[in-house]
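User: quick one, fold this
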Amino acid sequence: MYPSTTPITAARVPSPAAFARRCVATLVLGVAAFAVTPLVHAQAPDPMEPPAAIIEKAATNVLARIRSDNELKSGSPAKVNQAVDELILPYVDFEKTTRLAVGRYWRQATPDQQQQLVKEFRNMLVRTYSGAVSSISPQAKVEMRPFRADAAATDVVVRTLVSDEDRDAVPVDYRMEKTPQGWKIYDLNVLGVWFIENYRNQFSPVVAQSGIDGLITTLRSRNEQMKVAP
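Assistant:
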């Protein structure tokens, strides 16, 4: 279910797949916490719902879905993909995540290249999320840490502790931005590593050597590899 651990570049940083595997007990529930939908039908985010409340409700709802759906719990590809589509995608700002992961090179990309980058990076993240969702333990728990932010803030960090029956609690933090559609997650920190920073360290050497088109080609190739990965 997980993609190859071959790094995108020779940079001495974890590959996205290796990062996901190393942090599986925490990342999978962190991914699950992107979900804020009821147990049956997806709904648009509530623009008025506070960010910490979104994360807290999300963990409860997703774990309830997993506990009640045996096919999802067993890793059914159709059920996993459905869960990703309904519970994750509406609540992630993929454009911002991609822009920050590409970093300073984003401004060098044409509008068409930017669209291709978002598309390929989104596809890669979706497949990573799919593998993560199928690995969530029904015994996993999320403890909300104190949330402090100015009432007028539009960019915040929500901090949690994620634990499982056979693992110690690990801090998982979410960077969220207030948008007209409600609060959206654009970055995730597991074991002290920010998701975007991890990818930026992968992408920068590729762009420096092969340009924006080289990064697009690399992402597309990685997605093809992930399609056939066991």
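User: anything notable?
Assistant: The domain at 16-228 is CATH 3.10.450.710 (Nuclear Transport Factor 2; Chain: A,).
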